Amino acid sequence: MRIAVMAAGALGGYFGARMAAAGHDVFFIARGSNLEAIRKNGLKVESVLGNLHLPEPNVTDDPAMVGPVDIVLFAVKLWDSETAARLSLPLVGPRTRVIPLQNGVDSAERIAPILGADNVVAGSAYIATVLSAPGVVTHTSQFARMVCGRTDGKPDDGLKAFADAAQAAGIDISVSDGIDRERWQKFVFLVGLSGATATARQPLGPILADPDTRAFFYSLMSEVVAVGRAKGVPIPENFAEDRMKFAEASPPTFKASMLHDLERGNRLELDWLAGKVVEFARPLGIPTPANNAVYAMLKLHRMGNAHA
Fold first, then answer.
1. What region holds the Ketopantoate reductase C-terminal domain (predicted)?
2. Are the CB atoms for 41 and 49 separated by under 8 Å?
3. Quick check: 128 and 104 in contact, CB under 8 A?
4. Residue range 246-257: mean pLDDT, rounded
5. 214: helix, coil or strand?
6. Dist. CA 84–CA 265, nearest whole Å
């Protein structure tokens, strides 16, 4: 398959590298120091599921040099979604499927008007990974799962072909006919993890060990469940309890990407995580005091050190 990774960060780099190592034509879109490092040293993945090194991957900063592909793994930071979608237009042909694997819950809806409603599907990724250095992806969780599906729930031959190829490449992937529920269920944990770890400046283990921060983490997730259910998403009412069990089984060193960004002085995805929960909740009349607190505490950091 011809696959483009937009862009070759921690998440896109991981899944793209797995597909490239399995023999598929993968084109990594990168820029700046990451582009230069990949050109010079290749793309390295340090993973608990097995390391790999692509010595000479296809990498460019110009999607027009690639042309239409079968699959676009769309994995840019949330504030770059529309800009990256416009840059991705040369990658998209009539049968291309664009799979957003970003944080947040509304990526497909944001980029579909640019790249085509039939081309854009929805996706979620469950993985703990970070770009530890330019050209180096470090994956620390035992899980590395991808779920994708059309928002209308219909079967899709292009997605099935990609899922079959990804499974053969050793990737844990499934195609869902209920992707809206999948997205929101991921969003529940992500909002809790990002809000709790970034405000506490601590990984998950110490947060779960302290009764006050543990309760705060649970409240963040409970508020997302309430908002999702009010919007008609079929999330189980007790889903926050389920995510607490998942958290307890996760590595105690687990940090959200938002905490990594905060520690590095980078821009934060706050407005599309806790901020989005608050935005959705307001017209529904649902109180979200925990997510309000996260937004207030991190708001002055959301543009990174360059804008402090």
1. 179-300
2. no
3. no
4. 92
5. helix
6. 22
